Every structure is written in C-alpha cells, then in structure tokens.
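Work Package 4 report. The design task specified in the project plan requires that, given a folded chain encoded as structure tokens, an amino acid be chosen for each position. We show below one input record used in the internal validation round.
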C-alpha cells in the first residue's frame, strides 16, 4: 500500500495529485469506465449503487461492469439505485480490484467525503 500512496501523491513530501488545489475541490471531471480501472491509480468513476455489501462497502456499477467500494469507517450514505460520482484509490482486495473512496458527489450535487485512517 505504501507504493500506492506514493503514486497517488498522498504521503508527506510526495508531489500533489494532478487534480489537487483550491480550484479543484470536487471529483475530477475525467471519469473512467469501471472496466478501465487500474491497480495503483486514483480514479473518478460514475455509476449506480448496485447493492450495499456491508456497513462500509457497496458495489457500484456502470455499463462496463461493477467494483467494490470501501468508504470506511462509517456507514454507506447512499441508497441502492442512487447515481454517484466518486474519486478514490484503486487497489487489489483479495485479488480483485476495489476502490477506496475519498469523496463522492450525488446527482443533486451534494458532496460526501470519507476518511481512511489506515492509509
């Protein structure tokens, strides 16, 4: 995970992510399809909450596939069927890609942020 964080520019002394700065406080505008996610990157994806899989996890789907999303610690603030755009770190979770969400934007424009103390 350490190399993942360096790639994402999240460790002290690492260069900031390309979309960092006061003019870019929300999710990046360039979204990628779930099928195009790559381990070790920070990505913005848009999809529909397919199902809640745990207190702090859910599956997000788009036309290309679905991915497990971790928001923890906390309780998933979305409803099944809700459309969200989220930005997060892509990593492998037991061999499968997963996204550790940093923030999300609902269809109405409201924004939710998530903290991951284990990062």
């Amino acid at each position: 995970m350490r190399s993942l964080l360096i790639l994402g520019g999240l460790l002290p002394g690492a260069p900031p992510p390309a979309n960092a700065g006061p003019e870019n406080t929300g999710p990046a505008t360039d979204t990628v399809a779930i099928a195009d996610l790559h381990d070790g990157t920070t990505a913005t994806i848009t999809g529909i909450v397919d199902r809640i899989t745990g207190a702090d996890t859910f599956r997000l789907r788009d036309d290309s596939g679905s991915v497990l999303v971790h928001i923890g610690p906390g309780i998933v603030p979305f409803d099944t069927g809700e459309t969200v755009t989220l930005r997060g770190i892509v990593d492998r979770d037991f061999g499968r890609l997963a996204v550790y969400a940093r923030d999300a934007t609902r269809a109405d424009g409201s924004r939710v942020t998530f903290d991951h103390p284990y990062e």
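The chain has a mean pLDDT of 80. Validation will be extended to a larger panel in the next phase.
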